[in-house]
Amino acid sequence: MNYLLQQIINALGYGGVIALLAAGYTMTFGIINLVNFAYGEVFMLGAFAAYFCINIWNLPFWLVFLIGIAASIVVGFVIERTTFKPVRGADMVTLFITGLGASIVVRNLAVMIFDDRLKSFSLPDFLKGLHSLGDILLFNKTIAIVLVTLVIGLVLIYLVKKTKIGIAMRSISYNAQMSKCLGMNSEKVIIITFIISSSLAGIAAYLQGILFGSIQASMGFTAVVYAFIASVMGGVGNIVGAMVMGYFLAIGGNLFIAFLPPDLVGLKSLFVWGVFFLILIFRPSGLFRANIK
Amino acid sequence: MPSLPLLEMNNVVAGYGKIDIVNNISIRVNEGEIVTLLGANGMGKTTTIKTILSQTNIRKGEIKYKGKIITRFPTYKIAMLGISYCPERREIFANLTTKENLQAGAYLLKTHKEFKENLDRVYALFPVLKKRQNQISESLSGGEQEMLAIARSLMSNPNLLLLDEPSLGLAPKLVELIAITLREINDSGVSILLIEQNAKLALELSNYGYLMRKGKIAIEGPCKELKNNEGIKDVYLGIATHQKED
Predict the structure, then answer these.
(1) Which fold, B5-82+158-245?
(2) Interface confidence (ipTM) of the complex
(3) How far is B74 from chain A, CA to nearest CA, in Å?
(4) Which one of A14, A57, A247, B151 is least enclosed by Cβ atoms within 10 Å?
(5) Span B205-230, pLDDT tens digits
(6) pTM
(7) Which of B81, B107, B115, B137 to mutate to test the interface with A (most CBs of A within 10 A)?
């Protein structure tokens, strides 16, 4: 029993990372029907910006955190303007291939420039250490990640449900043409959505760095696949659904390998893909609803 | 009544892609008036309204609002000038609740106080919307959705309401309610450009009417005259015989 509980607790940190990425992913998925694989690169470059701040300039953690977010926003914005703006309104497949292309170009450039070895990412002092409850271990960094995820989740729910910009995002995601007739500047709202989504990638990047203690140039790919699956499972555009599913994938993946013989640990991703195929077969429209909720 | 032109379309040619659907039309809506566009399906009425909103390809002509040229303005800027749109088939945001749809309609309002006032006003016009305010709008009946669409288009304090087929598919009792409401809206100072299949209703409500045929204005005149116009009776044969029985 404790073994199971420990496995779940171990997954909470990575669950938080995936939950944040899934929330950011599902927002742009919902508002302009964008299956954005380049989102993984927004995440990766945010992590590298943070890495340089730590290892070259030795900046304090909060500044590292903010610069990581800012870098992700800049990267997300540049990708949006150069890659997705020219194909706005195109069908989903075109958008998908455009995003995939941008992702491949950026990721491989990063691998060329930074190489793909693991780069160590240091943890701020106050997050070092752990608590033990009986024989269960709980790391301080895990607590921090869960808290950050929770707070951001609440902020996002408030933003989308209660604010003017949130109403506009949801209206545009359902019917952009009608929204314009109500005076909404849809381009502006789309850019704001990208900024929020990219900043979530920047936050997730920093959290992944402190969680694993390392980053690498190809890290975006796995992350974006998890985020994509969580957002489809949560119902496209459904932020709460995406976040819950992010945790579900991380915890489920850990429990799955917990029951496998140790030499089959490499099959962890089988869980994610297995769940994904089951969902696509039985509930192709996603577990909840479509459009931004 | 002094009639200042609020909206003018002068010799407008517009359509989708390379195909022109409205061909050289001129229309005028004066301040305080209800003006109706009549005509059978596919004659270019909806395209005319979408042209005002810059949602078509405008090839020739000009559109003026309060004397200022607004041809090919971005749609959201046209809305900002005080032109509001209630589309055919409602196009409410089915993923939002009733109240959230009204919040979307109030996007251009600056203060929460204004929003509250307008909310109370449309709830007074359509009390059923208040009852349904926290319901997902997808679950509303057809009539309630039409009321919601009209209410949404009023939330922004428009000067001009472009109203496309408000009675489409509604029960006679509801059509009557919508008609009364349109009168009230107009009395409160909102000018209306109305597309309506129900020509009898449209002619009774409106001050001035245009009959469209194949993308052109075939007949125009004050509604009192149009009611007796043989051309209108030709087009709406059913209504014409009905009127004779009256």
Answers:
(1) Rossmann fold (3.40.50)
(2) 0.89
(3) 9
(4) A57
(5) 899 999 888 888 888 888 888 877 77
(6) 0.86
(7) B107
